[in-house]
């Protein structure tokens, strides 16, 4: 017990933050279920005038026949209610629509989204059905109309993450992949601060702090690359898609590995720290266009580039924010903790070395 | 300081032209690479032209600017240090590197013209791209060659450190050049051009700040 007390007594507040938030992030990240989502719909296309029976299968859903379920087809602001929602099993249902002509006659083809509204909350499949908008002959009479009234959708009943068709369960990676990059940038920024301080004051401790911060940042960068590659495999199909952000990340890691190579290649310890710190300042400033300017100019598969929405309401709803923002803080603090441990290891190594040289 | 810079640049050119094996080496490298490209590619379209030109430019700059500091003996640095302002040394090296790299790229474009005759559609944009990107490359190489000059294995350190650093210039520059060849549907080049200029300015500014510290050995 005494030992345990000693173990925790010296911890600064930001280490407590890591100890408290990291388990929260991991538990919440892996245990909170996804909301319900529609995975497939057949048939995928139809024409106006049809009385059509869509069969849908859903993920994480709890359809039941004795609850009130409603469904709509949606085209921009217009929507069309379903005549009937027939529940087959908790994950399967049939939705029946009578489809009238769209008010805008000039539209030949329209991508309709499907919304299902259950007591647990809504589920949406974007671009579910493609509709051929053709004029009807006088014999087919459809009573339903496209309307633009406000939809009456139930609130999300459970605490869960949004279901996105492309990502499905991998949406949890946002708590690991994105904060790693945030933390890397932050840690590198602080390393530049220590580098500048070293060049001004020539205190060897500052140099070692900068070195250990860069090592921690490199670790985060490599982990960010790996988590990103895993995510890319699932969502984009390949581990490495030659996306501009992936390339820029790889290049910034190359630039910083040059720092370690440079330190290894210099033999004089004074020159090692001086030139190393000069290079790290130069490298960080060259990193700014790589990370912040160039990716904006190119089409990217990442959210926020090339017409894709950024981290907005679509990707990051309020439930996800409750985990995401703490995760960013925890990773930044973890980066500093790792750097501090590394710093202490360097100190001890130097002490042992100098002790050995004196004792000889 | 201006007269110091001018005399240092003059001195650099005279030493460069005195050691003819260095010039001959770079020009031979240029010729043999282009010949290899010519025999392996035969017909070069505009897109391929831009990509091989950039590959050639990168290796050319590694070859030509490799030893801008280390070709002189260490002790001579002491001599300069006592004689002139450190920034004069930096600017003389930068100007020398820039002119030398620009001459070599112009030469390589002329040889390209002989072997693969693909004229750019917008010559003004092409020239401006060439000037701004060689300036950026020269700037980064000047800085890195001083850093790597202090290390034990300087040619490896030089290429490993400099290649990723010139990558942003290469990306924006090759985009601008594709634009000059009419390969892109998006003909707005202001952002690419501004990013090259920004990189040039940041690199020069940082070098001005850091060079005196580095120089004081």
Task: Spell out the key features of this protein.
heterodimer; A: 360 residues; alpha+beta; elongated; B: 217 residues; mainly alpha
Q: Percent range for helical residues of chain B?
A: over 70%
The ordered H/E elements of chain B are HHHHHHHHH
Mean pLDDT of chain B: 84
Q: What Rg of chain B is obtained from the alpha carbons, in whole angstroms?
A: 18 Å
Strand order of the largest sheet of chain A: 2-9-8-4-5
Report the major sheet of chain A. Answer: 5 strands, mixed
- Terminal Cα separation of chain A, in Å? 42 Å
Query: Which spans of chain A of ≥5 residues are poorly predicted at pLDDT below 50?
Result: none
Quick description:
With 360 residues, chain A is of the alpha+beta class. Helix content of chain A is 49%, strand content 18%.
Question: What topology emerges from the helices and strands here?
Answer:
The complex is a heterodimer of chains A (360) and B (217).
Chain A: H1 2-9, H2 13-31, E1 37-42, E2 45-47, E3 51-59, E4 70-75, E5 78-81, E6 84-89, E7 92-98, E8 109-118, E9 121-132, H3 177-201, H4 204-235, H5 244-265, H6 269-297, H7 318-359
Parallel strand pairs in A: 2-9
Antiparallel strand pairs in A: 1-3, 3-7, 4-5, 4-8, 6-7, 8-9
Chain B: H1 2-18, H2 20-41, H3 46-64, H4 74-83, H5 86-115, H6 123-149, H7 154-165, H8 167-180, H9 190-215
Helix pairs in contact in B: 1-5, 2-3, 2-5, 3-5, 3-8, 5-6, 6-7, 6-8, 6-9, 8-9
Overview of the molecule:
The complex is a heterodimer of chains A (360) and B (217). The model of chain A has no long low-confidence stretch (mean pLDDT 85). Chain A is elongated. In chain A, the strands form two sheets. Chain A has a five-stranded mixed sheet, with no helix packed on it. A four-stranded antiparallel sheet of chain A has the order 1-3-7-6, with no helix packed on it. Chain A has helices at residues 2-9, 13-31, 177-201, 204-235, 244-265, 269-297, 318-359; strands at residues 37-42, 45-47, 51-59, 70-75, 78-81, 84-89, 92-98, 109-118, 121-132. With 360 residues, chain A is an alpha+beta fold. In chain A, helix 2 (13-31) crosses helix 7, helix 4 (204-235) packs antiparallel against helix 5 (244-265) and helix 5 runs antiparallel to helix 6 (269-297). Chain A is built from seven helices and nine strands, in the order H-H-E-E-E-E-E-E-E-E-E-H-H-H-H-H. Helices cover 49% and strands 18% of the residues of chain A. Chain B is built from nine helices and no strands. In chain B, helix 2 runs parallel beside helix 5 and helix 8 packs antiparallel against helix 9. Chains A and B meet through helix 5 and helix 6 of A and helix 6, helix 7, helix 8 and helix 9 of B.
